[in-house]
Write a structure and sequence with these properties.
Largest sheet: 5 strands, parallel
Radius of gyration: 19 Å
Number of strands: 9
CATH superfamily of the largest domain: Aspartate/ornithine carbamoyltransferase
Low-confidence stretches: none
Number of domains: 2
Helix content: 25-40%
Bound molecules: phosphoric acid mono(formamide)ester
Structural class: alpha/beta
């Protein structure tokens, strides 16, 4: 069974194929009046989101529709999980009612890996706790590839709450596999030196990153995963770690800015930067649909 559980163990060949396919699909969709292809006609894709999501959920739903598949959207508050049904049994139900693949967003690290062991359909990780968010990693790579022809030789800075960021982990795995250099920086409580085990270099201030990067990815402060003692005030955070307009002005001329969103505007990124000329944050979201279309075709082994 061909799952997508993370970018840590994906081969560079499969990663490059996914990026190529996503770019091709983007071109194909743009050329169709209906914006629809029929590559997955007759298939049903279960979207099992047990943690909140806007971008990932809607872009998977749109990816299904663009490919002619039926999205089966799960709502935790209107399902039998509210009566205590386990995740494994819920997933088995979705498989038995006819889902051809299952997309899972869950707060538990390894939850998609567990389902992949009990289901006979492909499982796609749409974010598991602080572990990985591989489809976000793909859309980040696709957005970078839209601006820079080669990953080899690129330097990408990832700044903020690296410790709790599945986005940072997946992006780092993908970028390192394709030959890019990755610099992590964040407050001491949110950026442990052990993170260099992921293949990134760790810097101690945002200013040590800014002048060196081709791409700067700012991360969201994940209040839902932080203890009260792990973070100073938002004002202090912006002062030391925020991508302010002054800092953005020190980026190299060609450098672009990414953020997985949702953004804490005025904290990790200023409005003027998020909406400014270097920002590729909204194109990132648009690329999410095509990255997820490519993943659905890949996991369902549709040529
Ligand atoms: N970037 C991201 O995963 O956003 P959502 O939580 O809205 O899906």
């Amino acid at each position: 069974m061909r799952h997508l559980l993370g970018l840590r163990d994906i081969s560079p060949e499969r990663l490059l194929q996914l990026l190529e396919r996503a770019a091709e699909l983007r071109t194909q969709v743009a050329a169709q009046d209906s914006k629809r292809l029929s590559l997955l006609r007759g298939k049903a894709i279960s979207l099992l989101f047990v943690e909140p999501s806007t971008r990932t959920r809607f872009s998977f739903e749109m990816a299904c529709r663009r490919l002619g598949a039926e999205p089966l959207v799960f709502s935790a508050s209107h399902s039998s999980t509210s009566k205590g049904e386990t995740l494994a049994d819920t997933a088995r139900v979705l498989e038995r009612v006819g889902a051809d693949a299952l997309v899972l967003r869950h707060k538990g690290v390894g939850a998609p890996h567990q389902l992949s062991e009990i289901l006979k359909i492909p499982v796609i990780n749409a974010g598991d706790g602080i572990n990985e968010h591989p489809t976000q990693g793909l859309l980040d790579l696709l957005t970078i590839r839209d601006h820079f022809p080669e990953f080899e030789g690129l330097t990408v800075g990832i700044v903020g709450d690296v410790l709790h960021s599945r986005v940072a982990r997946s992006a780092c795995f993908g970028l390192r596999k394709l030959g890019a250099r990755v610099l992590f920086a964040g407050p001491g409580t949110l950026c442990s030196p052990d993170l260099d085990a992921l293949g990134a270099e760790v810097r101690h201030t945002i200013d040590e990153v800014i002048a060196d990067v081709d791409v700067l990815m700012m991360l969201r402060i994940q209040r839902e995963r932080l203890g009260a003692s792990m973070l100073a005030s938002e004002r202090e955070y912006r002062h030391f770690w925020g991508l302010t307009s002054d800092r953005a002005a020190r980026l190299r001329d060609h450098a672009i800015v990414l953020h997985p969103a949702p953004m804490n505007r005025g904290v990790e990124i200023d409005d003027a930067v998020a909406d400014g000329p270097r920002s590729r944050i909204f194109p990132q979201m648009a690329n999410g649909v095509f990255a997820r279309m490519a993943v659905l075709l890949d996991t369902l082994e549709v040529a």
